């Protein structure tokens, strides 16, 4: 599907295989540009697989008066939901109310209310929360998702897990998203439309030669290098965007990022219903608790400064305990360290706007074109997963003027691979899959549909029995599915499969994951031997 010969000059070379890089590559190639992308690790191996897994407008951003950002995100929720109903679905969020709820002290709304209502002493009044939710319901032209309602927490499923002091709550809508699968599906669609996608390929240098970028790539598996040429670079390096500017393309720029670490914990299942909680702390922070992978609960997130991009982000004991204590202030039964089954952490590369705290730093994206080296480079700062498609469209608005012609924007509502079915069609699709493959359990079929959608039938192929799918590595991950992930979804290592293409690592033992790793190594060796012949 590669559009070009190796000696041709590309239109765009994209650095970074997170959601912004893959989203831009997909949009650009669909408009007729020749595109190549390089990711130094696995797709979505950093920030884009470490989110809170939500398409949401960002209710708390209204306190910072980021109305444009919230509105754009609210509109996008439903646009994206229609394009990927297999990996995204609506969820209801329960926001318990109590008079102790307080603002973060440095929000514009808090400062204003402290002046006009000093007797509130930083507390969030109920009317203000309801006003925010009214705006949340109406800013984005909501059509699919349900609006806000008030609910009782007395003797209800939503109230049963909570402490008795919580008597009422507001319930509103947002959407779940399988974040790392979103990245992979954008990369797959970009490839299908003609882009070249390289994983485990590092850009070790890029220099402008006669008005064209000459990019040197290193294959991190075998150390081989090669060069490509491109008319324009897109620096979507995420946490490394500033490093790319300073050390890879070596240009002077006053733009920079503020690295903010967001940590999450996954616990045993804390309650039986399928709704999420939006908890507000007396320190002004908020956290979510979300039903996760059927048997678990996801709790996050923190906001902490992260000073060194080369340091792998981890959930520190202090962040873990903060989340545990925060949740325990709401639940009847305290959440303890013994309940935690997994933690993860990601670094948000926020645009450095000089905000006083990590929490106050803008979540909006900033796109800057730099021509100081001669050939143009677009540097991408910040962004949030909900607005990745709009960010890509905005990026193309910056890119198009450097080229003679380009097609119009096209991605709104266009299904990602496997997403070509109705928003409310998941149950029917699962039933169809079970009817065709009678050996599937309901749980197995549900997992496949929520990962692959209509492509689940292609993953299973002509199989008549479970044995036809080859080795079962554990948690119903078979050799057939693993082959699909290697051949179609750029997976190379066991971690790619069990922590990014899926979350089967929560269910598989270390021995099972090691067995998968060995199988992948043997498969790669056989392929290399075959290619040599």
In short:
One of its GO terms (molecular function) is glycerol-3-phosphate dehydrogenase (quinone) activity. With 533 residues, the chain is α+β, with helices and mostly antiparallel strands. It has helices at residues 19-30, 67-83, 108-116, 126-138, 179-192, 241-248, 317-328, 388-399, 426-436, 442-452, 456-460, 479-489, 494-501, 510-532; strands at residues 9-15, 35-38, 54-55, 88-97, 149-152, 168-177, 196-198, 201-209, 212-219, 225-235, 257-268, 276-280, 286-292, 296-300, 304-305, 340-351, 366-370, 377-381, 472-474, 477-478.
Shape: globular
Mean pLDDT level: 91
Number of helices: 14
Number of strands: 20
Count of discrete structural domains: 3
The proportion of strand residues reads 15-25%
Nearest-angstrom radius of gyration? Answer: 24 Å
CATH topology of the largest domain: D-Amino Acid Oxidase, Chain A, domain 2
Coarse structural class: alpha+beta
End-to-end CA span? 24 Å
The CATH class of the largest domain:
Alpha Beta
The helix fraction, in percent, is: 25-40%
Which spans of ≥5 residues are poorly predicted at pLDDT below 50? 1-6
CATH architecture of the largest domain: 2-Layer Sandwich
Major sheet, described briefly?
Answer: 10 strands, mixed
Fourth-tier CATH superfamily name of the largest domain: D-Amino Acid Oxidase, subunit A, domain 2
């Amino acid at each position: 599907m590669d559009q070009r010969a190796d000696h041709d000059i590309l239109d765009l070379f994209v650095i970074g295989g997170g959601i912004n890089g893959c989203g831009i590559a997909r949009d650009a190639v669909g408009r007729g540009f020749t595109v190549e992308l390089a990711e130094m690790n696995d797709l979505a191996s950093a920030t884009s697989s470490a989110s809170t897994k939500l398409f949401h407008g960002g209710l708390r951003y209204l306190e910072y008066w980021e109305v444009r950002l919230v509105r754009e995100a609210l509109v996008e929720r439903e646009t994206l939901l229609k394009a990927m109903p297999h990996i995204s679905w609506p969820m209801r969020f329960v926001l318990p109310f109590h008079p102790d709820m307080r603002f973060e002290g440095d929000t514009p709304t808090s400062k204003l209310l402290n002046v006009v209502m000093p007797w509130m002493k930083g507390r969030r009044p109920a009317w203000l929360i309801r006003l925010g939710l009214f705006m949340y319901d109406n800013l984005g032209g909501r059509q699919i998702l349900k609006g806000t309602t008030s609910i009782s927490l007395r003797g209800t499923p939503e109230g049963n897990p909570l402490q008795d002091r919580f008597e009422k709550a507001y319930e509103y809508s947002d959407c779940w998203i399988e974040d790392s699968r979103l990245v992979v599906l954008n990369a797959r669609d970009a490839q299908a439309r003609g882009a070249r996608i390289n994983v485990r390929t590092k850009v070790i240098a890029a220099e402008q030669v006669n008005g064209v970028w000459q990019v040197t790539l290193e294959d991190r598996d075998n150390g081989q290098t090669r060069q490509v040429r491109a008319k324009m670079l897109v620096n979507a390096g995420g946490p490394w965007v500033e490093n790319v500017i300073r050390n890879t393309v070596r240009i002077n720029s006053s733009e920079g990022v503020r690295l903010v670490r967001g940590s999450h914990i996954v616990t045993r299942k804390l309650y039986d219903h399928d709704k999420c909680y939006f908890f507000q702390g007396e320190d002004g922070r908020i956290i979510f608790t979300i039903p996760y992978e059927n048997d678990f609960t996801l709790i996050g997130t923190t906001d902490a400064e992260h000073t060194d991009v080369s340091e792998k982000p981890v959930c520190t004991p202090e962040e873990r305990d903060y989340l545990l204590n925060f949740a325990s202030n709401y639940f009847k039964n305290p959440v303890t360290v013994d309940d935690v089954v997994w933690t993860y952490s990601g670094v948000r590369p926020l645009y450095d706007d000089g905000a006083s705290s990590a929490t106050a730093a803008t979540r909006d994206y900033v796109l800057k074109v730099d021509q100081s080296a001669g050939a143009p480079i677009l540097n991408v700062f910040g962004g949030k997963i909900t607005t990745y498609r709009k960010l890509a469209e905005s990026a193309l608005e910056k890119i198009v003027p450097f080229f003679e012609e380009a097609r119009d924007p096209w991605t709104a509502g266009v299904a990602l691979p496997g997403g070509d079915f109705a928003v409310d069609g998941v149950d029917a699709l699962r039933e169809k899959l079970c009817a065709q493959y009678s050996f599937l359990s309901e749980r197995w079929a549900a997992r496949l549909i929520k990962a692959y959608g209509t492509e689940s039938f292609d993953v299973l192929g002509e199989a008549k029995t479970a044995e036809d799918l080859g080795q079962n590595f554990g948690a119903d991950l078979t050799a057939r599915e693993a082959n699909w992930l290697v051949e179609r979804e750029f997976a190379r290592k066991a971690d790619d499969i069990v922590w990014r293409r899926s979350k089967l690592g929560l269910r598989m033992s270390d021995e099972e994951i090691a067995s998968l790793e060995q199988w992948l190594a043997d498969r790669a060796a056989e392929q290399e031997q075959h290619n040599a012949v």
